[in-house]
Amino acid sequence: MKLLVVGVGVALLLGAGLWVLESGTQPVDQGASPSAAKSPAAAEESGSVPEVQVVKPARRDMAATLRLPATVSPLQQTTIYAKVSGYLKAVSYDKGDRVKQGQVLAVIDAPEIEQQYEEALADYTIKKVTYERLAQVWKQAPDVIAKQDVDVAEASAKASQHLLEQRQTWLDYTKVRAPYAGVVTARFADPGALVQGATSSATQAVPLFTIMDVSTLRFYVNVPQEDAPFVKKGTPATILLKEPVEKKIETTVTRSTMSLDPSTRTMLVEIDIPNPGEALVSGMFVEVVLSLRQHRNALVIPPAALVADSSSKAVFVVEQGVARKVSVRTDIDDGVWVEVTSGLTGGEDVVVVGKSQLVDGRPVKASPYNLPSGKPSSQKY
To answer: Which domains, from first to last, does the chain contain?
Structure first.
């Protein structure tokens, strides 16, 4: 009897425990209807409003520049050869010496030329005297001598005079002179050396000196084909020197070939710079910045605001909290600003940050864009 009572009691306790567990797993009714909760689509839409940063177009002076290396050369450079053959008798100047125009740089010992000059001088002297005597006789007694003999003597004297002048010129060639004032930058022969006259291109003559006129330097720049139409005489240019100290020289283009080299598709441009005190040296490395175009008070935006629109360019602008895509045309881009020639008026809020998640007509949340400081770029080759 006791075992029966105990069994009934255990069964009641187990039943009560199961009832408590089942009632704890049931949802508690808070009295809220299903329509009052947000649907997943609505929650996603409410969290997808992108945040963007915008800036208004500005007005600035824009310049398209081209930065290129330049070759520095002297205004004049001449390699001097001997005109006549002979032994180098004396050399008056060496490398680094400054010479004036007409100064004798070297003397060539050429006995044959000196002998020919003396023979021509003697021949001219006798023929000149003969002509003068015959002319005097004919003037005093025309019947004694024929006028034809006087004329023949006169022609012979003139021919010998021309020969003497020719020999004199060759004799002068034994003295090698400086063609202009400059600096001797190279010497190729020493006294006693046998030099050949450089009278033809086939002659294997050895040069004597190289002279440079460095009072003015010439800068050679090769401009690419796409920029060649913008470079001409008078185009503003800046020469950038880095050694021995950084220095800028403002100047203009002196001349250009106005044609492209077919092998390189570049146009040669020259800039002449006076070199007082010869502070600049021929052969040094420099860079030249050419100012191709300049636009005053241009409408500009940051380059980061542009988006690709098939073959054209476009920007997003924010109008009353909605993004609108606007096609634009651009011109000069210096790396910090890009010029807009059409599509914007200047009062728009142009999106700079957050463009990738935008489509035309999408709501956005805009905030001002803080433009970081930058340095204008220039194209290098």
So the answer is: 51-62+296-380 (2.40.420.20), 67-74+211-295 (2.40.30.170), 85-107+176-207 (no CATH), 111-173 (1.10.287)
